[in-house]
Design goal:
It contains ten helices and no strands. With about 200 residues, it is mostly helical. It has two domains: about 90 residues, Rna Polymerase Sigma Factor, Chain: A, CATH 1.10.1740; about 100 residues, Orthogonal Bundle (Arc Repressor Mutant, subunit A). It is globular.
C-alpha cells in the first residue's frame, strides 16, 4: 500500500470513529468531522450554487442538524457519502425560521449562555471534572466577539431569525448580517470546546 492510500485508509477509520462518537453525543467528534469536511462541502456548494453566504449557511445548518438528530443517526461505512448527500439536499431546501422574538441585552446573552451550559446540563455531565473550566472558556470566547457578532448569534440561533430580519433589526444589509454571524462562528471555532458548547445550548 502506498503512502497516499495509507493516509486515505487512516482518514476513513478516523471519520467512522468520529461518526460513532457523535452518535453517542460527543461534541468534539462533531467538530472533528466539521474540520475534516468543511472545505470539501464548501467546494461542492460553490460549484452547485455559487453563493458563498448561502453555501456556508447550509453547511452550518447541516452540522447543527447532525447533532440535534444524533440519536437517529445510523451506522455508515462512508461518512463522506452521508455528509455530501445530506448537504446537497440541504442546498435545495428552503430555510424555515421561527417567528418568535424578544429583546435581550448583550451582557445578559453572554451570561445566559454560560448559565445554561452550567445548569441545564449539570445532570448529564456531572461526572465531568472540568465543567466550570469549560463554562469559563465559553464566556472568554464570547468576550472576544464584537457586540454585533454577539447580537447576530443570539438573533440567528436563539431566536431563529432570518437574515433579512436580522438585517432589519440591526440596521445593516443582509450580506453584512450573514457575514457577522459567519465570522462569529469562525471565531468560536478557534477556542477549544466553545463551538460544541454553543451548539449544545441552542438545541436544549
Amino acid at each position: 500500500m502506498d503512502t497516499k492510500n495509507k493516509k486515505n485508509g487512516n482518514s476513513e477509520k478516523l471519520e467512522i470513529i468520529f461518526w460513532n462518537n457523535l452518535r453517542k453525543g460527543d461534541m468534539e467528534a462533531l467538530g472533528k468531522l466539521y474540520d475534516m469536511y468543511v472545505d470539501q462541502l464548501f467546494s461542492i456548494g460553490m460549484h452547485k450554487d455559487g453563493k458563498k453566504d448561502y453555501v456556508m449557511d447550509c453547511i452550518h445548518d447541516m452540522f447543527y442538524d447532525l447533532y440535534k438528530y444524533r440519536s437517529k443517526l445510523s451506522k455508515t461505512d462512508s461518512v463522506e457519502f452521508y455528509l455530501i448527500r445530506s448537504f446537497t439536499r440541504k442546498l435545495n431546501r428552503q430555510y424555515i425560521h421561527k417567528d418568535r422574538y424578544s429583546e435581550m441585552n448583550l451582557h445578559t446573552f453572554k451570561k445566559s449562555l454560560s448559565k445554561n451550559y452550567t445548569e441545564s446540563f449539570e445532570e448529564s455531565i456531572i461526572r465531568e471534572e472540568h465543567i466550570q473550566e469549560r463554562s469559563n472558556k465559553l464566556e472568554e470566547a464570547i468576550d472576544t466577539l464584537t457586540n454585533k457578532q454577539k447580537k447576530g448569534l443570539y438573533l440567528r440561533f436563539q431566536q431563529g431569525r432570518s437574515y433579512e430580519e436580522i438585517a432589519d433589526i440591526m440596521d445593516v444589509s443582509i450580506e453584512t448580517a450573514r457575514t457577522t454571524v459567519y465570522r462569529a462562528l469562525k471565531t468560536l471555532r478557534k477556542h477549544p470546546f466553545t463551538l460544541g458548547v454553543f451548539i449544545k445550548i441552542i438545541f436544549f
